[in-house]
Specification:
The protein is mainly alpha-helical. It folds into 2 domains: 66 residues, Winged helix-like DNA-binding domain superfamily/Winged helix DNA-binding domain (Arc Repressor Mutant, subunit A, Orthogonal Bundle), CATH 1.10.10.10; 49 residues. It is 63% helix and 3% strand. It has 5 helices and 2 strands, in the order H-H-H-E-E-H-H. The chain has a two-stranded antiparallel sheet with strand order 1-2. Strand 1 and strand 2 form a beta hairpin. Helix 1 crosses helix 3, helix 1 packs across helix 4 and helix 2 packs across helix 3. The longest helix is centred in the last third of the chain and has 24 residues. The two termini are 23 Å apart. This is GntR family transcriptional regulator.
């Protein structure tokens, strides 16, 4: 796993976001075993305590679960998985709106351009499979 961490946000928060993005993309399936804290720390080249903090937070959010001495796994709770996806979508939309409002583009024009680009991008992805 090759990840570039920014200097603005705590690393453990960025690790949680990475997991959320990978869940939303389907890289991690519900119930799938995830790397141990030590393995993750080695893969991401982060402090094991940082990995531990990220896992603890993800468990508190219901994103992952650990039963006894078994490896941690991605939740199977559909409501949690849906919430993660919606959270990422809302964040992306808010960032987009924040940047587009600064140039005073009418909503109708924005929606037209978004639809056009979305359709173009979707077509390219389908053609590349």
């Amino acid at each position: 796993m090759n990840v570039k961490f920014n200097n603005r946000d705590p690393v453990y928060v960025q690790v949680i976001r990475l997991f959320k993005e990978q869940i939303a993309r389907g890289y991690f399936e519900p119930g799938q075993e995830i790397p141990s804290r030590r393995e993750l720390a080695n893969q991401l080249k982060i402090n094991p305590n940082t990995a531990q903090r990220a896992y603890k937070e993800m468990e508190e959010q219901g994103l992952v679960f650990t039963e006894g001495n078994m490896p941690s796994r991605i939740t199977k709770d559909e409501a949690v998985l849906k919430r993660v996806r919606e959270e990422l979508i809302v964040e992306a939309v808010e960032n987009f709106i924040g940047s587009i409002k600064t140039i005073n583009v009418p909503l109708s024009e924005v929606l037209e351009l978004v639809k056009e680009k979305y359709d173009t991008e979707s077509g390219e992805e389908e053609g590349s499979e």
